[in-house]
UniProtKB/TrEMBL annotation:
Keywords: Cell membrane, Membrane, Transmembrane, Transmembrane helix. The chain crosses the membrane at residues 41-64, 71-88, 114-132, 144-163, 183-201. Coiled coil: none annotated. The keyword Transmembrane applies. It holds the Pfam family LysE. It is a multi-pass membrane protein. It comes from the Bacteria. This is LysE family translocator. It comes from Pseudoalteromonas ruthenica. One of its GO terms (cellular component) is plasma membrane. It is found in: Cell membrane. The keyword Membrane applies. GO terms for molecular function: amino acid transmembrane transporter activity.
């Protein structure tokens, strides 16, 4: 892949990662609930989830989603259900010290949430199919080119949300976040629920 094409791919992936959405809300949620490490774990697992879809798109298996509408629909409703689950948990969350060391189980939960919010978003598959079609040549993709195309969005996504986690857990912001943790959790809950309703509404309108 030429450098100019790779830089174009980097720019598109960076803009996609920086776009506010449920992924950002999930990273913030775990930063607020369990601190910096949990936020970083969420970011890395989310990047892994993005990488899975990028890998599928490069292999061309993502086209199966178009051939099997029921699979696509199932992923859409699965993602909406997961957003509702996150909304309920966020609403029930209470304030607490963000500096307390978290348990091993909470790290596992952070990893699960980070991966799930990416993997249960079928639009990522469609996005990568549409994106990579502009960069994949007519002939078979080489191993090196395929690896670059998978690694680029994976690293960019994970790096961006790691930065978000570090900023969220910075010492200057901790007191402010702690004072407003319940309010933020409630706002995140409303955002999760709103996104879930939007996903379902688009299927019926």
């Amino acid at each position: 892949m030429e450098l100019s094409m790779w830089l174009a791919l980097v720019g598109i992936c960076l803009m996609g990662a920086m776009s506010p959405g449920p992924s950002l809300a999930v990273v913030l949620k775990h930063c607020l609930a369990s601190g910096r490490t949990a936020g970083i774990i969420t970011a890395l697992s989310h990047g892994f989830g993005v990488g899975v879809y990028a890998f599928i798109a490069v292999l061309g298996l993502g086209a199966l989603i178009h051939q099997w509408p029921m699979l696509y629909t199932a992923l859409i409703y699965g993602g909406a259900a997961y957003l509702v689950y996150l909304a309920i948990n966020s609403w029930r969350s209470s304030a607490g010290k963000l500096t307390i060391e978290t348990t091993r189980g909470s790290y596992k939960k952070a990893a699960t949430d980070g991966f799930a919010i990416a993997f249960l978003n079928p639009k990522l598959a469609i996005f990568f199919i549409a994106l990579f079609s502009q960069f994949i040549p007519a002939e078979q993709v080489s191993t090196v080119q395929g690896a670059v195309m998978v690694a680029t969005p994976t690293v960019i996504d994970a790096s961006w949300y790691v930065i978000v986690a570090l900023l969220c857990s910075h010492g200057r912001f901790l007191p402010v976040l702690e004072r407003n943790q319940v309010l933020i959790n409630r706002l995140l809950s409303v955002a999760f629920m709103g996104l879930a309703l939007m996903v379902v509404a688009r299927q019926w309108l």
